Amino acid sequence: MNPAARTDIQDREHIVLLVDTFYDKVRVDVVLGGVFNGVIGDRWPEHLEKMYRFWATVLINEGSYSGAPVRPHLDMPIGGQHFQRWLELFHGTVDDLFQGPVADLAKRNADRMAEMFQERINRYRERPTQHIQ
Q1: pLDDT tens-place string over residues 26-59
Q2: Which residue of 17, 40, 102, 130 has the fewest CB atoms within a 10 Å radius of its CB?
Q3: In this structure, what are the phi and psi dihedrals at residue 123, rounded to the nearest 5 degrees?
Q4: Would you state the torsion angle of the CA atoms of residues 76, 83, 89, 105, taken in this order, to the nearest 10 degrees?
């Protein structure tokens, strides 16, 4: 997309574009592709729909997502390098497609989520019987 033509994230169409573009990159990424494809398998449409609802709730107050986003990630074979690469791809995707306060919010939320997920996954691995949301 032409950088001059970038707008801010404003509606569900923008959320779908962001999520689809990001996960197109994730699916073929040397660091993340095997992990995501291995866990999601042929359930990509369901995963993408869940991600549309999640990001639409977080960024444009759609209110369509509810759930415990950390729980499905607890037993995944992921660590710091995976989160670092996830953030690189996410930030790059946002910057390629959008600019503005909501785009900035998307990147800040991604940073906070990655930090929180890593913290909770590490805590779970240290004490797997502990209940984590």
Answers
A1: 999 999 999 999 999 999 999 999 999 999 999 9
A2: 130
A3: -65, -45
A4: 110
Q: Which residues 6+ apart lie within 8 Å of 24 measured at CB?
A: none
What lies within 8 Å, CB to CB, of 107 at 6+ separation is 90, 91, 94
Q: How far apart are CA 86 and CA 11, in angstroms?
A: 23
pLDDT at position 25 is: 98
Tell me: pLDDT of 15 over 90: yes
Domain boundaries, the chain: 8-126
CATH T-level assignment (fold) for domain 8-126: Globin-like (1.10.490)
Three-state DSSP state, 50: helix
For residues 78 and 29, is the Cβ–Cβ distance under 8 A? no
- Residue 20's H or E segment, with its range, is helix 12-28
pLDDT at position 129: 66
Tell me the whole-structure pTM to 2 decimals: 0.88
